[in-house]
Design a protein that fits this description.
The protein has 220 residues and is of the alpha+beta class. 53% of the residues lie in helices and 15% in strands. It is elongated.
């Protein structure tokens, strides 16, 4: 038993160490495009160790190869790494407060009858470049996938007349807690993708959670 605990503790320490190292690699790449050798020099790691962590970060969609540079007259060019757009967005804490400020300002200038269609239209614009499958069930799956990409954790509840997307929490919680009308942006996005008049029935309490009702659709 003691030996097993020792192995478990050792594995946990190694995992924590790897996570810290990968965080350092991400921070290094985030300061500007960098080669394996530059990262290794800054973090005092071997190039092979850096390649190992970059490989894992590539698979996770955090870093990408962004060209190559030649550092001398001989030898092959060295790959240059940069953060992906997804990673850049995850690093920013500005999106939620900026969105909240915009919704606050717009809601102060417009009455409810003007605000709702404006926010729904903004949501539709978010989905304007998304392909809309012909089959209704595929459109719903595409809508669910987009919500999950935004950070939503969902249950999909199907009834005879509708599909309910029931969230555990809300990816826009910090905005919705101040301005519940922000949910209409997501409803507009879902309506654009599904081709249905999606109704939001979200819980706007202390811990907001998503609830979007999609009426049953016919295949286009």
């Amino acid at each position: 038993m003691t030996e097993r605990r020792g192995r478990t503790a050792g594995g946990t320490r190694r995992a924590e160490g790897a996570a810290r190292t990968r965080g350092a690699v991400v921070a290094c790449v985030g300061r500007g495009r960098a080669t394996v050798e530059e990262i290794a020099e800054e973090l005092e790691l071997t190039p092979n160790a850096v390649r190992f962590h970059l490989g894992a970060l590539e698979r996770d969609g955090i870093v990408r190869r962004d060209g190559a540079v030649r550092t001398g007259s001989v030898g092959k060019p060295r790959d240059v790494y940069a953060l992906t757009e997804v990673a850049e967005e995850r690093r920013s804490n500005a999106y939620a407060p900026v969105l909240a400020a915009v919704v606050d300002e717009v809601s102060a200038r417009l009455d409810e009858g003007e605000l709702a269609p404006l926010l729904a239209s903004a949501g539709a614009a978010l989905a304007s470049g998304v392909d809309r499958p012909a089959r209704a069930s595929d459109r719903v799956r595409r809508a669910v996938s987009l919500l999950q990409e935004l950070g939503a954790v969902l249950d999909v509840v199907r009834t005879r007349d509708a599909v309910l997307l029931r969230g555990h929490g809300c990816p826009l919680a910090s905005v919705v807690s101040r301005q519940p009308a922000a949910c209409l942006v997501i409803a507009g996005m879902l309506s654009e993708i599904t081709g249905a008049p999606v109704r939001q029935e979200c819980d706007h309490g202390a811990r907001p959670s998503c609830r979007f009702l999609i009426p049953r659709l016919k295949t286009a």
